[in-house]
Backbone:
């Protein structure tokens, strides 16, 4: 097209796409460019504003590395990661939630009843529950990959003072589908703000905090993998999680219990002499 105008440029773009283009790629590119052009027309985007947007993308690229995923973080704080997640979540299963950039795969095995807290201080949190199918039957042999922040608010991958797999564990449940472990209650923390995402949050008048959470990836043969998180119901950031990860069924009561109620058969049984916190969180997996 040689007489391109602000009104026909979107159709011109669509016309430039080749006949042999894969249909889903055509659908996605057509819609993406339609929305992008409509956005520029609607806001009457100026050159300066366009340059700011390009500088933001360049800033993300400049900071991106194996340990720093600024584009994913952009998607997270814009709500896109959570939206994609919810578009494909199964209503009959436990809600999924954001993976985040701090999971380290290959965690060492953590036996059922094991302790992730090791020598860190702070009150003990006992987390337990059953991995079930959508009919309520336990799933024997399901695997649960667990990770969280240390009490200083940092994940192992962010903190040279921690071992690679500190506060990470991989548990395989038995015939009863039950998992159980002790840890310290994770703390609220901020997403990294020393790059372009910090600037966007500032510009939007937003804070960078996430509520306290435990991360799980739950897998079993024949079932859909589930990436999820558990949140305590008294966290001040529950209604303003900066990455939009909170779902009603993932918010749990953490009960304070006397030491005398600490169960048998755990790594810390017989070693608890102060009140502890306990949370029950059953997980439902959908069939693959
Ligand atoms: C996290 O929960 O680890 C996380 C999720 C999204 C962005 C940053 C951190
Ligand atoms: Fe997290």
Residues:
């Amino acid at each position: 097209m040689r007489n391109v105008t602000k009104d026909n440029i979107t159709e011109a773009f669509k016309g430039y796409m080749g006949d042999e283009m894969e249909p889903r790629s055509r659908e996605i590119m057509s819609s993406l460019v339609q929305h992008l052009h409509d956005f520029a027309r609607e806001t009457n985007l100026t050159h300066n504003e366009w340059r700011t947007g390009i500088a933001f993308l360049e800033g993300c690229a400049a900071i991106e590395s194996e340990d720093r995923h600024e584009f994913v973080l952009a998607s997270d704080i814009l709500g896109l990661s959570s939206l994609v997640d919810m578009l494909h979540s199964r209503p009959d299963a436990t809600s999924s939630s954001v993976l985040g950039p701090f999971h380290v795969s290959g965690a060492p095995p953590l036996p059922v009843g094991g302790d992730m807290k090791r020598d860190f201080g702070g009150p003990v949190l006992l987390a337990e529950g059953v991995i079930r199918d959508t009919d309520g039957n336990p799933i024997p042999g399901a695997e649960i990959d667990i990770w969280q922040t240390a009490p200083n608010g940092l994940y192992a991958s962010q903190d040279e003072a921690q071992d690679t797999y500190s506060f990470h564990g991989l548990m395989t449940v038995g015939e009863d589908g039950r998992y159980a472990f002790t840890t310290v209650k994770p703390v609220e923390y901020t997403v990294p703000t020393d790059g372009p995402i910090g600037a966007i949050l500032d510009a939007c008048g937003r804070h960078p905090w996430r509520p306290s959470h435990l991360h799980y990836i739950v897998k079993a043969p024949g079932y859909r993998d589930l990436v999820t998180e558990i949140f305590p119901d008294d966290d001040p950031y529950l209604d303003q999680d900066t990455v939009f990860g909170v779902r009603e069924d993932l918010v749990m009561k953490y009960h304070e219990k006397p030491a005398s109620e600490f169960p048998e058969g755990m790594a810390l049984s017989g070693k608890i002499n102060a009140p502890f916190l306990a949370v029950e969180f059953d997980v439902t997996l959908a069939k693959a």
Observations:
- The pocket of benzoic acid (ligand 1) is lined by residues 73, 76, 98, 100-102, 191, 210, 243 (CB under 6 Å).
- Residues 9-45 form one domain.
- The chain has a mean pLDDT of 95.
- The chain has six helices and 13 strands.
